[in-house]
Structure formats: C-alpha cells, structure tokens
Amino acid sequence: MPYVYLFLAIAVEVAGTSLLRFTDGFTRLWPTVGCLAAYAAAFALLAVVVRDVPVGVAYAMWSGLGTAAIFAIGVVFLHESVSLTRIAGVLLVIGGVVTLNLGGVAH
Q1: Where are the alpha helices (DSSP H) in 1-107?
Q2: pTM of the predicted model, to two decimals?
C-alpha cells in the first residue's frame, strides 16, 4: 500500500508543478490555490509513505519520477524544447531511481 500512496503523491506533485506556469508568479488566485493545495497533499502523502519506505528511496522515486513526468508534460502540452541532452538527463534520473530500488528496501 505505501507504493500506491507514493504514486498518488507523485501524481499530485506533478499536478501542482503543472499549475505553476498558470499561477503567473502566484498572482492568479485559483491556479495558486490549486498549486499550493496539490503540494500540501503531495507532502502529506509522502509523509505517510516514509513510515514504510526508506526516505532516500521514497524521495528519489518521488522527485525522479515527478521530474520525468513534468519533462514529458512540458514537451507534449507546453511545447517546450527537446534535445538529446535533456532526454539523456531524464534517462539518467530514471536510471538513478531504478538503481536505488535495485538495492532493495531494507528496514
């Protein structure tokens, strides 16, 4: 169950980060409220996750998979540029997450 919460935390954090562009520097009320609420929910879910998953593994997955998802959203929906260097960077982040998880979850 902790990994279900972790993926929910990632999804909510990605939603909050996606809203950042629309807050216009936190000057637009509703996108700002949505963004901050999503971040609060993501941190609350992450706090539940670290009860059962080592914080290093949980945070690596949360930040790494969130980074990859935001990169994809930026490219597909926000028309941000793609380069081999950016793709390589995202692949390295994902590789790091996989490598941490291959070490096993020890308590």
Answers
A1: 2-23, 29-49, 55-76, 84-102
A2: 0.85
